[in-house]
Queue: 4 jobs
Job 1
Amino acid sequence: VVAAERDVIYVATAAPRPDDAEWAERVTAHRVRRPAHWRTLETGDVADVLLSAPPGQPVLVDCLPLWLTRVLDESDAWGGDTSLADKQVERLLDAWRRTEARVVAVSNEVGQGVVPQTASGRLFRDLHGRLNAAVAAASDDVTFMLAGPVPDGEWGQRVLAKKLPGFLRLLVGHLHGFQDGVQRPAGAFGAPHARF
């Protein structure tokens, strides 16, 4: 989607985990795979990046579930009080709607598996599903991918009727071999229908 672009802002949303060697290896592998000419911002403040990017600037956000995990960690929301996290989600959604950049965000699908055993897993599944639905509703295009390729037909790709300035695209699919870096909500899938 942005591979041919020369000037891409790549937003890596994962939080650093200095005491986790395996996580550091994953981050290093991601860094090595990125084109050297892309500008990488390792930050959880995706809203600021979107609002400060110039009109037409290609921005790749990788990825929404790691951003959400970071927000839940930073707002200490794993116990169920998501009021601070909800404010960060609303801030992201506001920036998503207002940006004039060409934004592509990567996310995972949370509705294709079992209901998690843990309360934190169910919380993550529910919030992640709502986040995906809200970002999709504010996007010009939503593409579902399964292990990389876009499936054929209407099931595989739908274009939302609401068009916004610029190009906002949400890629949803299981693109990585892990759900998020926290491991608490590992296997956190389900099909929430509510929206932020």
Note: The first strand starts at residue 9 and ends at 12.
Job 2
Amino acid sequence: EAAHFPDLEVRAVYFDKQNRRWASTQGGQLTVHQNGTNKLIRFNNKPLSEYSIVAYAIMEDSRGNIWIGTKNDGLYKAMPTDLERNSYQLQHYPTVANEKKGFRIYSILEDRLHNIWIASYDAGLIRVNEDQGVCRFYRVTVSLPKYPANTFEQVRHLSMDRNGMVWAATTGGLLTLQSADRHGSGRYKVRIYRKQ
């Protein structure tokens, strides 16, 4: 297996629904392996080996899209263009917030309502709204009285429990998000766990 990683500093690893292992190294090598064999994956009709993407987060959504979060280069969304999912149309979002924030993506999650959530280390928690392949990004603002406004803007990790609650690990404490209704209105109840 070591031969698969010329640069052994692996930043992200993910197994997709086909049990293919996606891995990214600090040097920007993104690889896909299945049963010990390198898979020929194409982004925008070019071999994956021609791209330099230092992924910190990799996630496949329910539609087969591969989402890739990077530390300094924003977000990538790879949409399959063939049934075997060996060829993808790649979209790049250098930032998910504004020109000065939202390019450090540490975790990506899809909730039970098929919402995509982005954990940004410099712009906080982001919800993605997709409409006919176009992504719009909405920051979830969390504030407390007498507490600095940017306290929860450094999100390191996202997870979902068996009840569908989204958990966000931030440098300001732990957040949970629960959908306010079952119809996907986009309203969420936010609970904050922090040191008193």
Note: The mean pLDDT is 87.
Job 3
Amino acid sequence: VHPAGEREAVPTKLLCIPVLCAPLAAVLLVFGWFQPREHVASSRIELRVPPAAVWALITDHPGMTAWRTGLEKVERGPDQDGKPVWIETSGFGPMPLCVHAMEPPRPSRLLIAADDLGFGRTWTYEIEPAGPRSGTPTAPAAEGSGCRLTITEDGFVDSILFRALGPFMGGHHAAMDQYLRDLATALDQSAEPVHV
């Protein structure tokens, strides 16, 4: 049997939790309030493969489950305004993506095809030949020996809380960087994305 004083101490300790958490929540909300709703961010990698090899991977939506981290399933959804939609399912749930442009060698565009998520984004993929690599007088540089892939995210986040937490979860580059690392690994390479 606990003395009466000990029985009363437990609720008092429990009351301290919201008292201590409230200022932290307030700071987060204020921080989120001052974060911009809209953003533009770009990440880039250089690869030792021709542009066609990269193009083949990024346009094979069902095949992405074999190389993208956390992607569980990709299935075809109903078209949106005559444009194809793919539904990607990960640990965060299903996300419909509409392919707005996918014609090489022009930049391709992929956007979230849902209005009820509280956030949205367009990813624009640009694949360019990397140009000649440095060589020596006896071993000249090879033309077309690689390419660079740049992904630009043009997005928005409505939730003030998500805006506050975003910088602590890798920021706006996190998803693009993971995608690019996975892509490099799928091509048997190691490349660290550069923010441009």
Note: DSSP finds four helices and eight strands in the chain.
Job 4
Amino acid sequence: GEPSEPAAPRTKVFHYTVSETAGSAPGYTYDGHSETVTVTVTDNGDGTLATSVAYDGDGAVFNNTYEASGSATISAEKVLEGRDLDAGQFEFGLFEGDVQVGDPVTNDADGTVAFEVPYRVDAGKNDVGTHAYTVRELGTAPTGYTYDSSVKEVTVAVTDNGDGTLATSVTYGEDMTFTNTYKPLPTDVVLEAEKV
């Protein structure tokens, strides 16, 4: 007999849909789209199979995001010697290097000075690490007042808990008290009297 012609290759096409099963881990946003994958299997007729895989669009890429946030309260104390302290009487700034962080704050009536500093991790920012700050009194002293010109140091360590939250640990320098004094200026008083 004559040799037979090889059989024509037989091909089978399979279509699959691939999607990510969203988890429940806090802080994560899961990619909800699905991808179509086409697998073509060809019998070469010689005991071997050939395969090819084709993806639609972006090649079955799934993009997840992670975000975390937290905050720290940085506190100092204001003391005024020579008269009662009023709420909002003195203004303070928090600085990281030469850059002021947030808006200035003022003292409470009891002398508390508090900065609320937010931290975050997302696609555009990663605040994890150690932040060295200084706190100082802003403005110039009005007549009769002497301002405390000291600079107070504070460090905040920010860590990611891995669950969408950031933990903060605040370490203060030795003294976080600003002491101003008030001494009224002497004035001349002219008394007039008439003898009757």
Note: The first strand starts at residue 10 and ends at 19.
